[in-house]
Amino acid sequence: MKLVIDCLGGDNSPCANVEGSLIALDRLPGLELVLAGDEEAIKKELEKHNVSAGARAKIEILHAPDVITGEDRPTDAIRLKRDSSMMKSIRLLREDPSVSGIVSLGATGSLVAAATLRIGRLPGVRRPCFCPILPTMSGGIVGVCDSGANVDCTPIQLVQFAVMGSAYMKNVYGIDNPRVSLLNIGTESEKGDDLRRTVYKALAGLAAENVINFTGNMESRDLISGRHDLVVCDGFSGNVLIKTTEGTALQLLKKIKKDIYSRPLYKFGALFLKKMFAEEKEFMNYQNYGGSVLLGTEKTIVKGHGSSDSKAVAKCIEQAYKMVDSNLNGIIESAVSRLPEEYE
């Protein structure tokens, strides 16, 4: 299996990208990588890690000195920055049948636009969608689909997100019969706007036919409760949901730390809880859960967080590896094609 790694665009690039690639090569059998970015910089990073001859034989370098930033307009970046690491990676992914997917930490808008315009959607898929993973209080995970690729959605798009996300959670993470819920302002079936009520009926119909395991509406406060495996929402709501959850958790940890240092007695007590605090911090660290996969495109695409370290990059590569290895795109294409006509 060959994947291309966009080695520019992240806060810690190319260091984290190269080191994460080496970690992934050591863990995943049969993996080969194409590292796209400034060739000299990549070679210097490889020299730092004293790469074995066996690992080096599994690495190609695609020279791409330019970088797409968050300030670049996606349409301009695609058209004008053809020598950027992202666009050269996308071009290789499109033209070389031996390359199965891409991992990038670069600008989200440009990556989505390039993937949609240059790679294309799977047959029958209306819109690709992002599906990041968060930890839950039960020790499991929950996917959020969509989380920012599509701000405005139609009923059929949300129905497809449910089908694609369910296939992802089952085939990549091994969750048997994933519990699918619809983000809403209440759990009752009649809650929400016209879009949410229409989608609720459609998903309930698919559940009756055993297409998905739809469990009803979910309020945002229950995201990490452990009672849901996949949450379906439009990109605007999903992005707000994830960032609010992450932000609240981080701020709460900061407040606890501040309160501990406010009194000598608290500091003394904290000594006995130091290990527990470290575990809680690690539990909420997004670096441990990889990136947002883009479901519904012809080839596998994983978008890592811009501030990803090497551990997170390796996790993103593992996600892409499992998606290709499980033939997820083929499963999604088949599942979408079997949707009832009234949802088309």
CATH homologous superfamily identity of the largest domain: Isopropylmalate Dehydrogenase
| Assigned CATH architecture of the largest domain | 3-Layer(aba) Sandwich
Number of domains: 2
- Overall geometric form: globular
Give the percentage of residues in beta strands: 15-25%
Look at the structure and give the mean pLDDT. Answer: 93
User: In total, how many beta strands?
Assistant: 12
The ordered string of helix (H) and strand (E) elements is: EHEHHEHHEHEEEHEHEEHHHEEHH
Identify the strand order in the major beta sheet.
3-2-1-4-12-11-5
* Main sheet makeup: 7 strands, mixed
Low-confidence stretches: none
Output the number of helix runs.
13
Overall structural class, as computed from helix and strand content, comes to: alpha/beta
CATH fold description of the largest domain: Isopropylmalate Dehydrogenase
Report the end-to-end length measured between terminal Cα atoms. Answer: 34 Å
The CATH C-level name of the largest domain is Alpha Beta
Rg over alpha carbons = 21 Å
